[in-house]
Amino acid sequence: MATFTVEGDQFVYNREPVRILSGAMHYFRIVPEYWRDRLLKLRACGFNTVETYVPWNLHEPKEGQFNFSGMADIEQFIRIAGEIGLFVIVRPSPYICAEWEFGGLPAWLLREERMRLRCFHKPYLDKVDAYYDELLPRLLPLQCSNGGPIIAMQVENEYGSYGNDKRYLSYLREGLLQRGVDVLLFTSDGYTDSNLQGGALLPDVLATVNFGSRPEEAFGKLKEYQPNKPLVCMEYWNGWFDHWGKAHHTRPAEDAAEVLDQMLQLGASVNFYMFHGGTNFGFYNGANCLGKYESTVTSYDYDVLLSESGDMTEKYFAVRDVLARYTDIPELELPQSTPKKHYGDVHLTEQTGLFESLARLAEPVESVYTQTMEELGQDYGFILYSTRIPGPVSQTKLAIQDIRDRALVFLDGVYQGVIERNTHDIRPDVQDNDILLDIPSEGATLDILVENQGRINYGYGLKDPKGITEGVRLGLQFLYDWTIYPLPLDRLTELEFYPVQQKESSVAPTPTFHRGKFYVEEIGDTFLKLEGWTKGVAYVNGFNLGRYWEQGPQQTLYVPGPLLRQGENELIIFELHGTDAAVATLQDFAELG
After folding, report:
1. Which of 13, 331, 441, 461 is paired with 248 by a 20 to 30 Å CA distance?
2. Would you call 63 a catalytic residue per the annotation?
3. Which are the contacts of 366, defined by CB distance < 8 A and separation ≥ 6?
């Protein structure tokens, strides 16, 4: 048993002053086989603590159904950290941001139209309570007061940038205490007045601040609200995340190390956000929308100390040199980088079309009006809306009200174009970048395939239902009588593939599943290069690696070695727009930017 307390402007662990030198690492973005490797590299860099968020949507994917196995085995992750000699900071607040889908909130919250998030709204709090009743008993034995490595837990995350409901914050705090949490509690916010006023729970809960530069300014503001307490940067942004279609973010190692040195000179404790970012596997990437919707890429490399594939970077050694001036670096042999393998080209020799596979992938729903994913109990992936339009109709604008987030439109199976959230104007008299339809006298079938590109994870647009939220119009007229196919793409084993047929070049491609086999003698990490492909999702041995998109900046998908097996392996690519050559490459290096 141990104690971790605040005494004046110091942290004290078992009656000895201690400074928290922490790095963020998310167990849910790393395959479990690599947890120990990444944590050892954290310890070898000079850190004494690891910090992790806890994503509600991973642990309760369906209401009342809980998951704490595999990549969701938070208890095992914490135990490994303790074995290595690390303290652990856990951030189990219902909302985590983290550039993670819906900020970690489960999509099923949006089934209730009048649901209010992150405030004192009883239907919301009832669901938080049910989750905490399952989660927190798993963490209590791992608290330092019970002999474990957990020294602190977070009440809510950057709440001041969202709201100011102190009754809500107090309810969360009381919920932690009543369930037996007895380690230090804290909040974390930006260092503006409004953020600290809205997000802190002073004087009962320690306030911490988040920033990437100008530590004297940030800590000066924190002292105005919380004098004579430890200075903590709970998120030191030494790197940054990427959105599709924008340049890859980088930050010079010497700059990141210099700001760290400034913080340590001030006597502060610090948590690097991130130390090791990992990967947004599957459909778990988030998105931002502060005026414009922007989806986060699959890689969460973050340009930090340890790369997406676990390699020590220039920033790692620059930070280690700084830490060595303030703490004793443990005498640990630096773990070797995991081997990277070039397996060469993979020819995807089989395929099957989405439309011909619908019966294998989805249970259709008949509905007078369009319904969102959440209304149909679907969390992630795609959703297809199909209806029959009578004719004749000439050159009339198709308007989707509202599209979340990107739609491919087909008329009698023929591709008509893309409608995207940022550029689609639903006004009938505006026809820039829009689709005009001609419906013959005998009528036509309209199919709209919508991709959920990630729910918003930060800010006022957090409530972000997916699919078609209101309806579809042709001109001024709403279209009714829909057949809807939820497509989470979790039933790929039921697909029936056929040998690739040579297609006429004049035929517009339709969304297609491609399958190929490749053989592995020696297992290692590799990177899937999809040159010549347009946009879609890739699976290795049934594991969803995440999204790819030719517009970058991400050019490869990380394939951790534990996903492979000696001998035959399977690659499935769901391509939305088509490719000239159904060939992918497994290479031994990543490409970002």
Report:
1. 461
2. no
3. 482, 483, 484
